[in-house]
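Repro:
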Amino acid sequence: MQKSVDEAYGVMSREKFAEFEKEVAKAVLDKDDCQTFREDYEIYGANKGVVKVEYSGICTVCNLSTSFTMEHPFWNNPTESE
């Protein structure tokens, strides 16, 4: 579907393209089994006093993606201060 949207870009008027793009997006979202965004995450480090979260996600249709890593200290680990 994304390929047909890409091929239509610049070929039709701006208004027709916007309408076409909305129709394609609606067709994709109307699917009952539409699960196109894959998410992966890992949470670890609580035993060392800092919880670390690594997250990433990507749409398998349009390749929209994001990722981040966060750290949240929640207690002082006595072995680290020695």
